[in-house]
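Components:
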Amino acid sequence: MPTDVLARLHDALGASVTTDPAALDSTREDRSGWRSATPPLAVVHAASVDDVQAVLRIAHAAGTPVVPRGAGTGLAGGAIASPGAIVLDLSRMNRILEVSEADELAVVEPGVLNGDLNDALAPLGLWFAPDPASRAISSIGGNIATNAGGLLCAKYGVTREAVLGLAVVLADGRLLRTGHRTVKGVTGYDLTALITGSEGTLGVIVEATVRLRPIEAGEVVTVAAAFPGVEAAAAASAAVTAARIRPAVMELIDAAGLARVASFLGATALAGTPLETIAPGEAFLLAQSDSHGAAAEAARIAEAFAAAGGRVTVSTDAAEGERLLAIRRAMHPALAASGQVLIEDVAVPRSRLPEMFRAIEEIGARYGIEIPTIAHAGDGNLHPNFVFAGEEVPGEVWAAADDMFRTAVALGGTLTGEHGVGILKRRWLADELGADSFELQRGIKALFDPTGILNPGVMFESTAGGAATAR
Amino acid sequence: MPTDVLARLHDALGASVTTDPAALDSTREDRSGWRSATPPLAVVHAASVDDVQAVLRIAHAAGTPVVPRGAGTGLAGGAIASPGAIVLDLSRMNRILEVSEADELAVVEPGVLNGDLNDALAPLGLWFAPDPASRAISSIGGNIATNAGGLLCAKYGVTREAVLGLAVVLADGRLLRTGHRTVKGVTGYDLTALITGSEGTLGVIVEATVRLRPIEAGEVVTVAAAFPGVEAAAAASAAVTAARIRPAVMELIDAAGLARVASFLGATALAGTPLETIAPGEAFLLAQSDSHGAAAEAARIAEAFAAAGGRVTVSTDAAEGERLLAIRRAMHPALAASGQVLIEDVAVPRSRLPEMFRAIEEIGARYGIEIPTIAHAGDGNLHPNFVFAGEEVPGEVWAAADDMFRTAVALGGTLTGEHGVGILKRRWLADELGADSFELQRGIKALFDPTGILNPGVMFESTAGGAATAR
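Structure:
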């Protein structure tokens, strides 16, 4: 049967199909630290909608699983090879098909990188707002498939709010078009929103019509501060919200994270910043204001930070602001330098941030693990990190992660704010959703993909996709 | 069978159930100009989630249709009695259950009026952004059920972007909770977005967690202008977009509409405005800038309006701005004063606005009908109005509406930007969606409502709900 599928793929797609062991192997991983147990059956490098339709028709007829894959930068194992699957690589579908200045929209193929689209838009004074930390390396298709978040969401929204319409190849190869070229449109159910964030389990996104914004005029002002502890920093971020200020960026690093970042960056990089000297237990909070009124807004933020006990720096200089933001950006490299990293992604209502930080500390203490954490404080999204040695995620890390997810959900939050469920978090999906929602979601999956060939094992448990382990 | 259902309703809900002819009759209409052929079986005034669950359990067991109804202000016939149905009136569920300043959210029952929520929020410096023209009289539940738009959407988004989570009673009486108290959250498919805009066909919204915004600081500046014709006005609005300006409000009235508004308001109301003297064929365009930088933005808008041939007034005075906006608000009263009004609701990409205006003029000429039109020019949403005498929509009005919908869809737009499909536009649903999308949408409906009791005839054709006529 697999031989037969391969022959049909070769017949239909020729040199776009590869079974080269190195190419197969490269699809077993993403950036989550997970690696599939086996390589896929084949990788198809699709170059067109027709290619994608041809793959799906063949796979549908044969019952062969298909894993849609973009830039491979996922953090939840949502696009890694599953046993016996065709990996449908969309990274060659990377053309910007249209930019309409008059309608403030772009039509793109799924493989266009977020950063490349923004580079093309900048000279026009336009901007695609979704801003995952991975924007330089992640694709628009992947951003949409995971409903990616990022640093700017409290002010500028998540990816869903920037997607106007989609072209999607369905499980049997038919091409579905959803949405409009308009901001408004309420004809029928919102399939565009349903497919956004569906992680390749309902169809393969082959084109997206995305909403653009005018680039914000005015300066960017950065406010950074060191605080005696993470709870003081969390209180400072809450005070900003309470003052009805909505900065573009508000990022928080706890003490464990900050110590690692400081030692990773070294004294020279931190000279002249609030981190020039760090006392043990200190945490870091950074905010950026943009657009008109940025300076006045930043002054109020600085006041709030100082009132909460922060040692504050304000910078209107772009290069200096970038240097302060680089402290935040150094978090993941700093962790990766010391071992394998499992990045978690819980979100809680902003008011529960101090409780969540406290819970993470307690969970760490309970299992004897340090859990350095960074948060998008403006929207309550935390990334607690587990750092470990070796190929396997240690049992106590799983146990600690389990405690953490349950705490986030109990605080009114969610087990994934922006990375997606993938294969990493599917074991908790039903716990968070509840039985009725879970049943409806499975029903939607069955409606779109009756034979279950689209990304099996992602989001929902499946025997076929169960065999992946931490890298 | 109906007797049996009535008895069970009375047993379970007592005095909340009414079969009083006047009460039944009042549910046969909304603000669309449509009236159902028959009164419903009964009206239930639900006061709690338990009441709603009890109604659905009884209806589900008996196969009785249920029409969820809020404030009755719909414009598409989406909440009017269908034959043999229980009308589930949610207007008594009008409590604001919680306002969290720290999390910038409110939890409300569905019957809370949009304006009442905003009145309660204003002293806190907070604001629920969805802003349908009906905000004083329409309910949050109805706003969500139709994914309502309004005047501010180009800048502040549609209702969907303000809904964080829902509690929904399913067709069989189970209570489903969707979403979170967080801005981010990607666990599973986005049922919150799927149910938003579903017009009561997937479940009954009994609670909503909605996102609030800080009230914009700074002044509001109004720019209004008369133009030689509607195409010049449309070109002026396009010039504003092209200048990368996104005003809070941008409203356009064509010549036919403006003539009626001017005669309705009278000379005194227009003294000192650009409409003090109107030449035949002139059109009206109004923009408002808010927040920081409003004055500078408004100056650029005024320049663009003047360059496009507008006779421009700029006002920084709140009362004067309100007086200019009152010209726009007078559109519907002016039309209603001269006959029955059928309000349409197409949307097109902004760049196609001039073409759509031209098409409306041609369609009007073809059928010998005047079609006064108002547009949310900032987002390409047009409300062409048909004014006629008598109880029945004349055949040529339907023919003209049919031409208009097909033109909007051909221009890359949609047959409803914000009012919903209801019973008025269901005949065009499949045309706009295409066969594959239509089939998936019917599948979603069947998944949530296998026995088809929820708002039959709304959105999809159904023999049961087919018997309504224009009032």
